[in-house]
Amino acid sequence: MATPIIYGPDYSTYVRTVRLAFAEKPAEYRLESVHMLGGETKQPAHLRRHPFAKVPAFEHDGFAFYEVTAIARYVDQVFPGRRLQPSDARQAARMNQIIGIVDSYAYGSIVGKLVWQRLISPMLGGQCDESIVRDARPMVETCLSEFERIKGGNPFLAGPDISLADLYLAPIMAYLSMTSDMADLMKPCPGLKSWWDSMAVRPSMQGTQPKLG
C-alpha cells in the first residue's frame, strides 16, 4: 500500500490534526510542506489539489481529496490501530459537536484573532492590535467554557477515550498556550486545563510539534 501524503505546512493546526490521527493509530505518512504564509497554497500546483487554496490536501494510493474532517475520518477508517471515533452514539455526537465548535467559533477567535495578534503578526514584522484581542476574548471565553462543560468529568473531551475531538482542539490549545492570555483564560476551566496538561505531553503531540522560527 502506498504511503499516504499530507500536503500542508507543519504549523497549520488542521494539518497537525491529521498528523495526530496518524500518530495515534499509529501509521506512517509523508508530509509535503506547502508554505501557506508564503503564498504557496495559491500556486497552480496546490490549487490542483485544493481549489479553495486551503490546507490540508491528501493523497493515498491514487485517491486524492481535501477537507480535514474527511481526511481525519478516512485515516481512522482505513488504517488499523486505535479507534478515533466513538461507537457510542452520544459520545460520537459530543465529538462531532466539539469539532463543529472548533470549526465555527474556536478556530476563528483563538487562532484567527488572538493567536494571530499575539504571535503571528509580530513574527511577520507587525504589532499586536490589542483591540482585536479584546474583541475576541468573549468568544474565546465562551468556547473554552463550552469545552469545559462538555468534557465534564471525562478524561477526554468526548468521553473516556481519545477521539478526533481531542485532535482538533489540541493544536489550537498549543498555540494558545504560547500567549500571555492562557493562564487567565484557563482559570475558570480546571477540567480543560487538566485535559490540556495531559494532551501536551502525549507522544503524538511531542512528535508533531511545528518547527517555528
SSE inventory with pairings:
Elements (H helix, E strand, L loop, with lengths): L4 E3 L5 H12 L5 E3 L11 H4 L9 E4 L2 E4 L1 H11 L10 H35 L6 H22 L12 H13 L5 H5 L3 H11 L2 H4 L7
Parallel strand pairs: 1-2
Antiparallel strand pairs: 1-3, 3-4
Helix pairs in contact: 1-3, 1-6, 4-5, 4-6
Q: Could you please say which CATH topology of the largest domain applies here?
A: Glutathione S-transferase Yfyf (Class Pi), Chain A, domain 2
- State the end-to-end distance: 35 Å
Radius of gyration: 17 Å
Extract low-pLDDT stretches. Answer: none
CATH architecture of the largest domain: Up-down Bundle
Order of helices and strands: EHEHEEHHHHHHH
Q: Main beta sheet, described?
A: 4 strands, mixed
Give the mean pLDDT.
97
The total domain count is 2
Strand order of the largest sheet: 2-1-3-4
Number of strands: 4
What would the keywords be for this entry?
globular; 2 domains; 9 helices; Glutaredoxin; 4-stranded mixed beta sheet; 213 residues; 4 strands; alpha+beta; Glutathione S-transferase Yfyf (Class Pi), Chain A, domain 2; 55% helix; single chain; 7% strand
Describe this structure in words.
There is one protein chain. The protein is α+β, with helices and mostly antiparallel strands and 213 residues long. The protein folds into two domains: 5-78, Glutaredoxin; 89-206, Glutathione S-transferase Yfyf (Class Pi), Chain A, domain 2. It is 55% helix and 7% strand. Strand 1, helix 1 (13-24) and strand 2 (30-32) form a beta-alpha-beta unit. Helix 1 (13-24) packs parallel to helix 3, helix 1 (13-24) packs across helix 6 and helix 4 runs antiparallel to helix 5. It is globular and about 45 Å long.
